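retry 2 of 3: previous attempt timed out while embedding flavin mononucleotide. Reduced batch size to 1 and resubmitted. Inputs unchanged:
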Amino acid sequence: MTERNPVAFGDLRGWMKALDAAGELHRIDAEVDWNIELGTVARLAQGPGTGPALLFNNIRDYGANARCHQVFSGALASYRRVAMMLGLPPDTHPRELVKLGRTVLGGSIPPKIVRTGPVKQNIVKGGDIDLYEFPAPQWNRADGGRYFLTYGGVVTKDPDTNVMNVGVYRGMVASKNQIPILMWRAQHIGHHATAWQQAGHNEMPIAVAVGWEPSLDFVGGSPVPKGICEYDVVGAIRGAPVDLVKCETVDLYVPASAEIVIEGYLGLDPKGFLMEGPFAEFTGYVAGDASPKHVIRVTCITHRTDPILRGTIEGSMPGSFSENGVCSSIMRSATAWNVLDRAGVPGVTDVWCPPVQAGINTFVQIKQSYRGQAKQVANALWGSSAAHVRYKHVTVVDDDIDIHDYAAVDWAVAFRVNAGENDIVIMPSTFGAGLDPSTRRRDRNVHQFGTGKWNRVLIDATINLDYDPDPDLGGARFPPTVWPDQKDIDAARARWSELGLDGRKR
Ligand SMILES: Cc1cc2nc3c(=O)[nH]c(=O)nc-3n(C[C@H](O)[C@H](O)[C@H](O)COP(=O)(O)O)c2cc1C
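retry 2 succeeded.
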């Protein structure tokens, strides 16, 4: 595995400087409307992992005198930039990123509390709070409103242990000082909400750090185990402790050099819920229905002078992969691989969740040593809680199939799958993602059922070891492929120039 050389960028600005030097940052100086146009440009520009990070620095209605006049997005929508964040060469293959992802959440360098920092340069409280002073985009025409929180680190704490959690949760502007957010009870923020409620509170302290080093966004959106504080993991990724300052109005800590921090209380009583959504979701569909949600009552905003609003366009589609899609493809693959290891499934040689759907379809490559191994893979994955919103379809292939190559997987599915031989297995009516539009609307109601509903499928595209070894094939179960023998390849290559094929693929 490639050696990591951890980088502490210092803050969002240090990260942008590094991106600039690497030719990965594009500044948009022409005026762009926060209302639909900015989101449209971001979605079109990101491409299939090929677009640059974007700094919008001329936003309609938010001139140079505005409290905030810049939006930054797209920084993690490319494997090159994810590699840079992790301190790896930019051309590191996603396969290597997955391998690293298997251990990267296990590192720990605890944060350091400091007295103050740039995020305290401006402190806005009480009646002065006005979220509309920030150019939060209406990212999509179909969204229910302007989303201030799309890629911020949402900080809460366990009331019993005081251990903080940082997660990424979307939040819409509902008024000058109210942000309803999408919070599932199964997420760690939901665990905290339940604990505060059981302790008799109807509000929970909350803070959101918007705009800092990329590792905060990456780790906040990754499945860090419960009870482990994301700041510790971020410290390990950047190879240095995160400097944290205390919030002004809540007992929580945020990075001292964050661009913007929203402080407040999250209402836990349904009577105070406000409508939130719909929102263009990670599935690539406008699938987050409008419904009443928990609301952040903002008590304070602290921010750097001339702050940069970090945001992201959510939802991957063919030809346009979101930051979430790219990062999740790594971490959902790494998590699945770890689940298989812990379950004792032998012979797993690679796991990949392509970024366009980031783990709904999962490819697992194995070196088979016995009959039924692919079924063990699916059972182990589906029995894990990591499968709650992922791994709906599992395709298992042999180790001669490169799972990073769609053509290779397609070929294996074409010629190694026989539905009449139990190569397709349906596991009906399991738990699943409430945002998947292929599930009937009724069954996506997580409030009614506690979870969504998925019928899962295993596609066993391995060579069937239940077939008898064929004496005509020297005991093999499948015939040889058409690919030439190595000696024939070598002989042909030796004549490549003579054949006038130089410069062509061989
Ligand atoms: C850009 C982005 C947006 C996300 N939005 C939400 C959201 O609105 N609600 C939610 O429950 N999870 C959302 N997630 C997923 C969570 O951040 C992720 O599951 C994370 O692991 C949750 O933190 P936790 O492990 O501390 O619970 C989002 C992730 C990303 C990267």
